[in-house]
Amino acid sequence: MEAIEGIKNLSYALDTFYFLITGALVMWMAAGFAMLEAGLVRSKNTAEILTKNIVLFAIAGIMYMLMGYNIMYPADGNGYFPALDLSFMFGGDNDAAEVLATDMEGWYDGSYYSGMSDFFFQMVFVATAMSIVSGAVAERMKLWSFMVFAVVMTGFIYPLQGYWKWGGGFLDAMGFADFAGSGVVHLTGAAAALAGVMLLGARKGKYGPNGEVRAIPGANLPMATLGTFILWLGWFGFNGGSELILSNVGEANAVAAVFVNTNMAAAGGVVAGILTARILFGKADLTMALNGALAGLVAITAEPLAPTPIGATLIGAAGGILVVFSIITMDKLKIDDPVGAISVHGVVGIWGLMAVPIYNADASLGTQGIGMLVIFGWSFVASLITWGVIKVIMGIRVSEEEEYEGVDIGECGVEAYPEFTIK
Amino acid sequence: MKLITAIIKPFKLDDVRDALSEIGITGMTVTEVKGFGRQKGHTELYRGAEYVVDFLPKAKLEIAVNADIVDQVIEAIVGVARTDKIGDGKIFITPVDSVVRIRTGETDADAL
Asked: Model-level pTM?
């Protein structure tokens, strides 16, 4: 009897530990987004984008604690709307005696890890979705308007559609599959970003008088590359942790498969992205290799377990090709996205969702399509309304002069590189 | 006395410096400059969108010498800086009224 109790203790501790460590890896993705975005904007807008990145991460945690977590994982609900519940902020976790009293038969259906570790893991996911938005609206959006949007996004918009899928709502009930969030996290973030960019408009100088597309090169490609590597690393937590548990042979094998497939998809995305750029542009545009890596990762996120390694590589590669064409198309449509976030997380997020049935026999193209439309529709419309209200009340765009001078001085009063110029 | 101002391709700077040392030139001033001539600028692509590089990087050398070795200096510079491709640069020769070495107060030929 004591041996069984020891195994239960060990199993609970191991799965909690795994959850916390993979959550910490996902937290580190916030650093990846910060570096990627700081590298792809101009130096005069660096301090401001970094400010947005660290403050949005903090807002995400606080809002998710206050209401987001309870909306997404409610004690009760009708599948569309959760029952009102704000209990999480007052604490509490699984009772040790109760956990140990669970018989081995029902072990994996019950409380196999700490409730707090579950909150921690889910909380870093909402921060990821919000990080996607900051890159797309970079270099021209008002700092505080962005922060207000972050409150609504992380407290309400994201958690509600999260409830529909991961909280056991109607999308989950109809068989929609999204393992780690190509839709729930990435498409949601991209939809919010798209709504923001449409109300915000393009950066000054992005389009010439005759509508020709002009390049605005990023200031620091070493930083953007470091950011991409950090995201790649963090993604092992993002997808690997989404297996939720580790402590038996089957689950351990599954986690290892998810790690391998996640890596292979990113690799496929890089190679496909850089080759596509070379063929289309004549030169090997580094930023397309970076976007290719992220596209591969987003593409595999909806189903990183079922594919074979070669299959994962090809799904990632398709994402890598898609992202290059998408970025060119967005530019032509005058959707100015300095870092390519809408293409990487939105367009490729959709590809990830629609690719699930290739290897997962339980998923169907129709159900995936409905889930995709519901998630995109909700996130886009809710974001558009939120951005619209913010625009009316406090404005969302900085003045033309401030945009020219750089939002570092205008919004933050500090420059990222104050010693580079003569005063 | 003459002032020789040579605009050359930056990657030829080391070769030019060596060639001038060989013929006994003991000093020069080098500046990193940008400009365009017949070569014009060129366009590059960033994330599929064009951007124009109007001013190309060049190295500017300034060398003050006695009039009698001007031809030798020009020959040395042209000899190594020439690639036969557009954008090799130009050499300007201008008269110099006087020269002063600040440390000693020497003037003209003694100061060179």
From this structure: 0.89
